[in-house]
Structure formats: C-alpha cells, structure tokens
Hints:
By secondary structure, chain A is α+β, with helices and mostly antiparallel strands. Chain A has helices at 2-19, 25-37, 43-53, 59-71, 112-124, 141-146; strands at 41-42, 75-78, 86-89, 96-100, 106-109, 128-139. Chain A has a 3-stranded antiparallel beta sheet with strand order 1-3-2.
Amino acid sequence: MSEQIRHARERLAKYMESQGKRNTRQRDLIVDAFFVQGGHITLQELTRLVQERDSGVGFATVYRTMKLLTEAEVAHEQRFGEGQARYELADLEHHDHLICESCGRIDEFEDQVLEDRQSLVVRQLGWQLKHHRHELYGLCPECIEAG
Amino acid sequence: MSEQIRHARERLAKYMESQGKRNTRQRDLIVDAFFVQGGHITLQELTRLVQERDSGVGFATVYRTMKLLTEAEVAHEQRFGEGQARYELADLEHHDHLICESCGRIDEFEDQVLEDRQSLVVRQLGWQLKHHRHELYGLCPECIEAG
DNA sequence: CTTTCTGCAAACCCTTTGCAGAGAA
DNA sequence: TTCTCTGCAAAGGGTTTGCAGAAAG
Lengths: 147, 147
C-alpha cells in the first residue's frame, strides 16, 4: 500500500512536470490528505480534512486538484448511486465495489471468473468492451450481524 | 412487447385506483409517449416528445408522472455515468446494460452464469446481496464497423 | 517578470418543491 | 364541492468557472 502511494506520487510528479504544473502548499496538503485517507472520499470530506490543517484552503482548489490527479491517472472518480462523486487511488489491477446500504461501507473485490465471463458475453454480442461498472449493493457482515 | 405494455398499463391502472390518483390528459400523454418510445429516455427527452402533442405540458408534470410510474413499479429509474436519470419500462426479468460510448446506444443483456457467479462471490465475502448495477461501456457493432 | 494558482462568488445543470389556480370525481 | 393535479418559478444539491489578487518559477 505504501508502495502504491510511492508509485502514485512519482507518477503525479512526472505528470505535473510534463504539464508545467506548479507545486503549491495547497496541492501538497490536498494530495497528502487524499493519500493518507485512502479511498472513496468525497470532495466535501476531503475539503474538511484539508481545512483541519489549513482552514484557508477553498473547495474550488480541492476540486481542481482532484481533477488534476484524475488527469494524471493517480486518482479515479467514481459515481455510486446518487449524490456526489467519490475519489479513490487509481489502482493498477482492476476491482469492483460492494456497497453496504445500511452503514455506507464500501469494499472492493476482484474475481477473474466474473471478468472473463463478462468479456465473453460482450464479445458474443458483437460489442467491444472498453470498461465497466459493477457495483453490488447489500448488507456487510457487521450489519447482517446487527440485524 | 405489446404484451409487456398491456401488462404495464394494467398494473398502473390498479396502482392509481388504489392510491386515489386521478386520470388526466397530461398523464395520458406522458404515459403514452413513454410506452411508445420504449426505453432509456431522459425527462428532458420525454418532455420534448410530449410537448410535440401539447406544448402546454410542463416539465414538473412529466417529472411527477415518471415518479408515479416508478412508485407503481411500471417504470424504472436508472442513473448511468453522469448527468440525467433515464427511465425504462420495469422489466419482469432482470437485465443489465451495454452502453456505446460512441453513439449512445443502450442495449440490454442477461446472463445467468454472471448472475450466479456474482451471488457466489458476494456470499463468500460474507455479504448479503440486495441488488446490483452492472454496466458495460464500449463500442456497439455499428460503431466498430464505422471505425 | 510571466504564467499558473487560489479563493470567492456566481453560474450551471438537473432535480425537487411551494403555491395558487385548473380540473377530476 | 372537494381534493388532486398542473404549471410556474424558485429552491436545492452538487459541479464548474470567471476573475482579480497571490505566489511559483
């Protein structure tokens, strides 16, 4: 995981260099907060985290910084059900999501059998697959336990 | 298909009856347009269709009527990628979607192997599945052909 | 110095709702 | 007559952007 973050930081540095983007105090704060927090965070939440360290950082800057990370393919923008977008660390391996409708917990899973079957189905229909969204909604083990 | 629509109309009539909802010219226009059009339509598009027959019908009425059909489980509200919601005829059998990123075409597919594997994966992780969203994005046969 | 960034506030886009008059039953 | 429905316009909720001053290089 630390490995993943190191890789992400490198990739981001390269991207910024190549695009003539500048390093700023705000960007550092935002990127650090995002990496520390880890995953599936909204802009509102991230802004709150960043403002704990510097209350002067504005929402628009957080918004634009996450767009930047997305362009750099260091972050990935997800839109679950309704409402706000959520950002997660762009992963090297593909994964899908399990979302608990009771507590909001979001887990990731990966299953090669599913992926393969999906590819097969698409091919048989004559389509060409670019990417997909596979989200499973239900109850996590803790919420099942809790009733 | 005509069979499906007849069934939907019956179900809707029953629901409206049971809820003391009234029949109005606007609702008839909207429901007819929705049934004729078929599937994956946005409120904007549906409003435009309805207004070709009666320009006085407002967007809010279309909005509320589709909410009504959704409550009656005659229509189903989908939110693909970004932007607006889309409505489709509520199907008796479950299906998932194929979305063409070039022309916007939306097709449906159903694969029992996928469904079964999905259930298995969820169960093994200790979760309880309620419903899911499985959307495949890519190119449809025509757009592959067209290059 | 020059060019990019930032924070603010306003603009947008779509969805949702309050209200007063219109229309079913 | 009564109670629901409609159209309008405004309010919400999240995302995006114009602008003038701040800061990086």
